[in-house]
Design a protein that fits this description.
- The protein is α+β, with helices and mostly antiparallel strands and 195 residues long.
- It contains 3 helices and 9 strands; from the N terminus they run αββββαβββββα.
- The strands form 2 sheets. Strands 4-8-9-1-7 form a 5-stranded antiparallel sheet, with helices on one face. A 4-stranded antiparallel sheet has the order 3-2-5-6, covered by helices on one side.
- A hairpin with a 2-residue loop joins strand 5 and strand 6.
- 24% of the residues are buried.
Length: 195
Amino acid sequence: MTKNCFRDLFVCVLCFAAAPVQAETLLAEIVIQGHRFDPSAEVIPVGMNFGVSTPGFPYAEFFGEYTTADVGVVFEAPASVVDHFNAAFNNQQSVMGGTTIYGPWGPFSVTQFWSLPTWIIPHVPQLGVGLEGYDVSRVTRTVDSIVWGTSGGYLVVDGQQSIRLYGHAVPESSTLVLFVLVGVHLICLPRRQRH
């Protein structure tokens, strides 16, 4: 009986371990606008940046230079940057910020994540400070606009980027423990033998 119980428990654990991870979902969007007015400006690629700073870790940024041909294009952040963003958005001491062209955004504490409705559009419920309770699995940038023009005979540029954070909710450890305990109980219940 005990041998079968352990075999069944082993199968249960394997099935649980092989279960698919929750589907990736859009966690939040961060919209950053910018403007440049410069008498010496010329039509060149413009810089767009979004980054996080966490005490004890190097600054992590998602930077790129773009032209009007890039408007509407979605760019993916490198995995190393995504890993750092994930850690930073779950650390109350982290700071986030960015620029579109030369228009600065931030710096803001991660503790302000849910209180910046002008720039941050959450798509999931708040589970804690920053993105506590979520794993950030992917970060993208969409170049929303780059518009060149003139003002008073000078060249000017306006632009906007949208940073999108994707991921999934992290199961609470108490839920996993409960699942295992119920599974053990159900598997190890004495089975009635048929006559």
